[in-house]
Amino acid sequence: MPTQLLLIEDDVQIRNNLTEILTLQGYEVEAASSGHEGLECAQSNRPDLILCDVMMPQIDGYQVLEAIRTDSSLSAIPFIFLTAKADSTDIRFGMNLGADDYLTKPFTSDDLISTIESRLKHRQYWIPPKTPSVSYLTSLRGSNCWGSMTLNTADCLYFFIQERGCYVLHPKGTFRVDGSIEELATHLSPILFFRVNRKEIIHRSVIQRYTYWEKGKYCLFLTISGQDKEVILPRARYRPFLDWLKF
Fold it and tell me: Is residue 211 classed as helix, strand or coil in its secondary structure?
């Protein structure tokens, strides 16, 4: 099956030229003339890679990228910006949002193809980390003002540090648990749980969406036992977070 590319470009001549070049290279290209149309195309027909112009009316390339990266079904798709803006600040901003590469206009067809092939190759050879053959915690002891009880770790939703103690939000309530966040991060299943930052660990099921916040940080929007919560994901944890979502 040919590799499917989504091209989002509002300039009709550039869009047609790139579509022709890529089609001749054997790619299957779906072209969109706006950011809004591009997002609809990505959601209805998930591509293997996205090429997107930066400067577009209504929804620009940055907004498209942010929407892609905050959609768990699309977030792992390689994303390449096509731009006439070669300023390092603009490039840094796009990379902080999660862009995989930049092509500065005008670029040659060789540059275009090699960049696409490089990103596809990187995606092809990415291998999810293997789960070590160790036994992870299946239960832990939690206590609160009503007493203590054994909790199934798979049902634990959110671990956090508060007043030097480690706590967990569970469908049965909030409990204090023994051990540190570091110890829990080591002994909890890496498929179910992710350590967001120094003080918080989340269960996969609580994630609703995430978005760029500021200074390279991201905000995760969670729903825990019917309550909405926001946590900050540092820039250094963003790529590991995307890789974890692929499990």
Answer: strand
